[in-house]
Amino acid sequence: MKKKENPKKSGSVIITRQEHGISRKLMSPNALRVLYRLKDNGFVAYLVGGCVRDLLLGREPKDFDVVTNATPGEVKRAFRNCRLVGRRFRLAHLHFHEELIEVATFRSQAADESEPVAEEKRGGENRQRHPHMLKNDDGMILRDNVYGTPEEDALRRDFTVNALAYDITDFSVIDFAGGIADLNAGIIRTIGDAAVRFQEDPVRMLRAVRFAAKLGFTMAEETRKALVSAAGTIVTASPPRLYEEMLKILLSGEAAKCCDLLRQTGLFAALFPFFSAWLDAESEGFPHTRFGEMLTCVDSRVQQGGTISPPLLLALLFGEYLEEKATNFRANGAPWQQSIDAATAEFLGEVCPFVQIANRVGFALRDIIAQQMRLKQIPGRRPQLFIARKDFGDIIEYCRITRGDNKDVAGRLKWWVAEAAGQESVPLPERSQESGAPPQKKKRRRRRKPHLGSAI
Ligand code: ATP
Ligand code: MG
Question: Quick one: 162 and 245 in the same domain?
Answer without folding.
Answer: no
